Every structure is written in C-alpha cells, then in structure tokens.
From TrEMBL:
Keywords: ATP-binding, Kinase, Nucleotide-binding, Transferase. Belongs to the methylthioribose kinase family. InterPro entries: Aminoglycoside_PTrfase, Kinase-like_dom_sf, Methylthioribose_kinase. Homodimer. This is S-methyl-5-thioribose kinase. Residues 36-271 form the Aminoglycoside phosphotransferase domain. Pfam families: APH (PF01636). Its EC number is 2.7.1.100. Gene3D superfamilies: 3.90.1200.10, Phosphorylase Kinase, domain 1. One of its GO terms (biological process) is methionine biosynthetic process. GO terms for molecular function: ATP binding; S-methyl-5-thioribose kinase activity. SUPFAM superfamilies: Protein kinase-like (PK-like) (SSF56112). It comes from Pseudogracilibacillus auburnensis.
C-alpha cells in the first residue's frame, strides 16, 4: 500500500512528500521546507516553500477531533465542503477566493494557493491597520456568493439538490451550541467569563428572559431557513487582505442557512476591531472602522438590490414589494446574528483576540460591556436595523453610556 492510500494525520515531513507525490507544482529536485502555520480552532495548515523561496502552496488537513479540544469529535469530510465551496466562490466572486489545486478524500486535505503576500485581517486590525477597499470587496463577495445560491435566482430543483449536498451536521451543531445556546445558559459548563465582569454578565445575559427567548427564535431560524449557501464563519480571521485585495478563506462551516448569518458575522467582528481600537485610543482607526461598518451595510443593500433586479428568475419574487420584504428579513437576521456573535465571543468558549488582548483591566471591562449591551440591542430590536447609520447610531449611543 502506498503511503497516502490510508488516512493519517501528517507531520511536516509527510506533507513535503505528499506535495511532491500529488502535484507537479515544484521541480522534482527542489528542496522543500514545511511549517505548520494554522491558528484556527479545527484544522492543521501547512505552508510548503521551495528553498529558493519563489514557489509555495498551502496544505490544509482535517483531524478527527477539533484542534481546540479533543472532546469535540468531527468527521474529516469537512475539507470536502470547504474545497467545493472555495471552488464555487472562485467562480461566483472572482478574485475573492484562493485557488484550490487538489482535494483528496482519503487524506482529507486540500492543496491551495498560498496567500502569504496577504495578512489575516484580524491580525492587521489588531495593529490598527486600515483597508480602504474592504467594505467594497466584502459587500461584493457576500452579494455575489449568497444571492445566486437562493431560490430567487437559481433553479429550484438544483437548489434542493445543493441543500442536501451541503448538509454539514457536525459543524452546524458547533454553531448551534457555541453561538445559539451555551452563551445564554452555560449548560455545557464551558463558558469562560472575564472575572471582573462575571456578576454583570450573569445578570445581563443569563438572567435576561427576553434576550434568551429572542436567541431561541434566531436559533430555529439558523436551523430551518435554507435560504442560501452561506460561508458560515465569516469573521475577520477568515479574511486575507492587502490594501488592494480581499480573499475569503475557511468556508468549512458552509451550509444552506440564512444570509444574515454571514452579514451579521462581518458586522460583529468589525465592531470588535473598532472597540479594540477605542480601548487603545486609536481615533483615526476607530473612524475608519465606523465608516467601514456603515459602508458594508449600505453597499450590501445597494448591490443586493442591483443584483436582484438583474438576476431574479422566480416569477413570484418579481412581485412589487417582495424584494424589499426579503431584504428587510435579511437585515433583521443580520442584526440578530451580529448580536449573537458578539455575545458568544465574550461569554462562550471561542474568544476573539480583539477583546482578550486588551491588557488594561478597566478598558477590558468597558469593552466587554459595550459589546454585550450593543449586542442585546441588535438582537432585541433587530427589526429596526436597516442602514449603516442605524448600526452606528446604536454603537455610538452605547459607547457614550460607558
Ligand atoms: C470548536 S470551533 C470554535 C469556533 O471556531 C470556528 O472558527 C467557529 O467560529 C467556531 O464556532
Ligand atoms: Mg475557521
């Protein structure tokens, strides 16, 4: 039996042999170097470079447990979903996804374009870097990947086949638990609260019955609204950027779910970056982040409307007023999900550096309270958030309070 005919979790040396055996990307005699560079919660990511440094690829492999915890058992099939979606994204939103060179269903890995001329957006935002084209790029990406996969645009029978094809039960279960359940009751007892905010969070989150009811409604929306093929984890750690380019990676949580899940994740994670900038008194960065959030929402609305007008195929979706009704629902969901993401990243197991890296205790207390108070408004009043200004007005009101 050849070395890669049976699944095993590779080490650096194996990855070098693997790339040589499976691709003709490098010259046969090149000396290759390999590093594990992943910092995500689930998978292993290797960068393979030739010693001359002029060629490189990424190999991403799934283990049968989550990297963050051996207790989280996962099927290794998630790399297939990720590869298929990356290829689809490359076609739908040209220039915004890395190229996939190979998917291997035995080794449960894929080989893809190395984006090392780009940086992970979250890391760059933590350094208060700004990206003038980000709002334009990410709003284009969302409209061009989401709307074409809905019943509004696509053939309904084909769409139903896709819903089945992209069923992703285990990763959806992670989101149902970590985003929609545990932050409100800690029933798995793995929430991690920042000690100085503990009592405040117990009162404001665990004991807020109205909030928990609204989170329950949103959970069932996530589980039952097969609206579009969503990315499923569209936070700032899933974006690779330069000043000129934005690439979206890591769609392994993708499935047919509500469009607002992707839009809300972007809004929430840009808000984390803004609050982190505010904690360090970086005014120009905060202004940029505020404008970017506003533009993401407004450009999304504008491009969604234009794309709909050009591509709608369903006869009933052409009824006057239907588009506006549909978009209103998307925006309500987006606000609700933005709130949920902000709560789970502060209360739950999977945190974000934007908040945990704030070293001054008083500033972290304040940052968490701003995010959680704003999140509650996003969830409870979600039907009132329609424009970029609506989001920013609420943000400013809450920031003023603390
Ligand atoms: C166990 S995985 C924790 C989180 O990491 C991923 O990026 C998703 O956001 C998930 O909720
Ligand atoms: Mg990820």
């Amino acid at each position: 039996m050849a070395k890669f005919d049976e699944y095993f979790l590779m080490e650096n040396e194996d990855v070098i042999h693997y790339v040589k055996e499976k691709t003709s990307f490098f010259n046969e005699n090149s000396a290759l170097l390999c590093d594990e560079i992943g910092d995500g919660n689930l998978n292993y990511v290797y960068r393979v470079v030739d010693q001359a440094g002029d060629k490189s690829v990424i190999v991403k492999q799934a283990g049968d447990t989550a990297r963050i915890s051996d207790a989280i058992k996962l099927s290794t099939n998630r790399i297939k979903i990720e590869s298929d979606i990356l290829i689809l994204h490359g076609k739908l939103a040209k220039g915004h996804a890395p190229e996939v060179y190979l998917y291997d269903n035995v080794m449960n890995c894929c080989i893809m374009e190395d984006l090392s001329d780009h940086t992970i957006l979250r890391e760059a935002l933590l350094q208060f870097e700004t990206f003038p084209k980000l709002a334009d790029h990410i709003s284009t990406f969302m409209v061009q990947t989401l709307l074409p996969t809905t019943d509004v645009v696509m053939d309904h029978q084909e769409k139903k086949v896709n819903v089945k094809e992209y069923m992703n039960p285990e990763l959806c279960d992670i989101s149902e638990e970590l985003v929609y359940t545990e932050p409100f009751n800690d029933y798995n007892q793995r929430n991690e609260l920042f000690e100085p905010n503990k009592e405040w969070i117990v009162t404001e989150i665990y004991r807020d019955d109205v909030l928990r009811l609204e989170a329950a409604k949103l959970k069932f929306e996530f589980m039952n609204h097969a609206q579009a093929l969503i990315h499923g984890d569209l936070h700032t750690g899933s974006l690779f950027v330069t000043k000129e380019s934005t690439k979206v990676i890591d769609p392994e949580f993708g499935f047919y779910g509500p469009i607002g899940y992707d839009v809300g994740n972007i809004i929430a994670n840009l808000t984390f970056a803004l609050i982190h900038g505010d904690a360090y008194g970086k005014e120009p960065f905060v202004d940029w982040a505020e404008n970017t959030i506003m533009e993401v929402v407004d450009l999304f609305n504008k491009k969604f409307t234009a794309f709909w007008d050009e591509h709608v195929t369903d006869e009933m979706a052409k009824e006057t007023g239907f588009k506006e009704w549909y978009l209103d629902r998307v925006l309500s969901d987006s606000a609700g999900v933005a709130g949920l993401e902000m709560i789970r990243r502060i209360v739950g197991l999977a945190k974000v550096k934007d908040i945990t890296s704030i070293e001054m205790e008083a500033e972290r207390i304040r940052a968490e309270r701003i995010c959680l108070t704003l999140a509650k408004r996003f969830i409870k009043d979600r039907d009132t958030f329609r424009t970029g200004k609506d989001f920013i007005t609420a943000l400013k009101e809450v920031m003023k309070k603390y």
